[in-house]
Design brief:
Elements (H helix, E strand, L loop, with lengths): L1 E7 L5 E4 L4 E8 L3 H10 L6 E4 L3 E4 L9
Amino acid sequence: MLFCLSLCDDTRRVILDSDYYGDVLAVIEAKTWREARRDALKNEVLDSFIYRRGYGWERRNQTTTEYK
């Protein structure tokens, strides 16, 4: 199954899904979503993003107020 790490046009956060929500940063081939997430965490495209629990990946040095 193919998964995408995409930069959401609306929220400007990175989303891992089997669909895309904006610019595709990487495509990951995996058997399950959990496997895809493990592979995504190792992907260098996420180096410029930080994970916020309950929110997802956002660009480093940005706050959520910039998304509104």
